[in-house]
Amino acid sequence: MFKRIKELRNYKELIWNFTSRDLKLKYKNSALGFIWSLLNPLMMMVVYTIAFKFIMKQDIENFSMYILTGILPWSFFQASIIGGTRCIIDNAQLVKKVYFPREIIPFSMVLTNMINYLITLVIVFLGLFISKIHIGPHLLLLPIVLLLFFIFTYGLVLLLSSLDVIYRDIFHFVEVVFMAWIYLTPVVYTVDQAKELKWLFYFNPMYYPIQSIRDTLMYDRISYNYLLAMALIAFVTLFVGYKSFIKIEKVFAEEI
User: I need a surface site. Which of 84, 158, 180, 230 has the fewest CB within 10 A?
Assistant: First the structure.
């Protein structure tokens, strides 16, 4: 596994080609193109703020920023997992005809979505400034949080994309899971508002990155226990995902 990971360094140009292709396809035939990367989070923030603050009467300080700092990393994760689950099938012709480490495809998919997320942080920092939210030294830990988040997401995409080659229902199962998963994660509500479910959050792998990202951006704090939990979850997921991918990769050509 570690040999395969090291091998990826020899394919930097190919990884970037895949990533740039996906970025271009994302905004192809769109009049506003790249601008949608900035408009989309603003529109999501407005919709969720109206729905939860004014209709459902959520009483959370700086609610719009609370929503934004939760929904954006969630959107990165959801786009990566749902898009990544089908990435081997979607690139079937390439997989059959050309040799390259197949894990480059899911890696590029996750990288594309991470780049999109990093772009939207422009809106987040602008919102923090307008809301007069203090940005402190704990922000320096955000890159570590995002790296662990990336590793976890990549590991899960490796697992799901390989399984989807054999079991095509995996994709539809993932879509259904995401419908419920967001409501089991404190994205649009606080942990204190669901105290009776707090024990359940600790078993939710998305609880840790969402809370850690929000804490570093809005509250100038971080839980090092959460960081350790993220690291454990990330590397275990990467290990399981890689092992599964390498094993199933042998039948890719036959199954797709």
Answer: 180
Using one digit for the tens of pLDDT, what is the confidence trace for 165-223?
Answer: 999 889 999 999 999 999 899 998 888 888 787 888 999 999 999 999 999 999 999 99
pTM of the model: 0.91
* For range 11-22, the mean pLDDT: 87
Work out the mean pLDDT of the chain and round it to a whole number. Answer: 88
Identify the helix (H) or strand (E) that includes residue 233: helix 224-248
Buried b (16+ CB within 10 A) or exposed e, 73-102: bbbbbbbbbbbbbbbbbbbeeebeeeeebb
Cα angle for residues 227, 241, 83 (degrees, 5° grid): 90
Q: 213: left (phi > 0), else alpha (psi -120 to 50), else beta?
A: alpha
Which among 119, 145, 163, 162 is positioned nearest to 209, based on CA atoms?
145
Three-state secondary structure along 53-101?
HHHCCCCCCCHHHHHHHHHHHHHHHHHHHHHHHCHHHHCHHHHHHCCCC
Q: H-helix or E-strand containing 18? A: helix 12-26
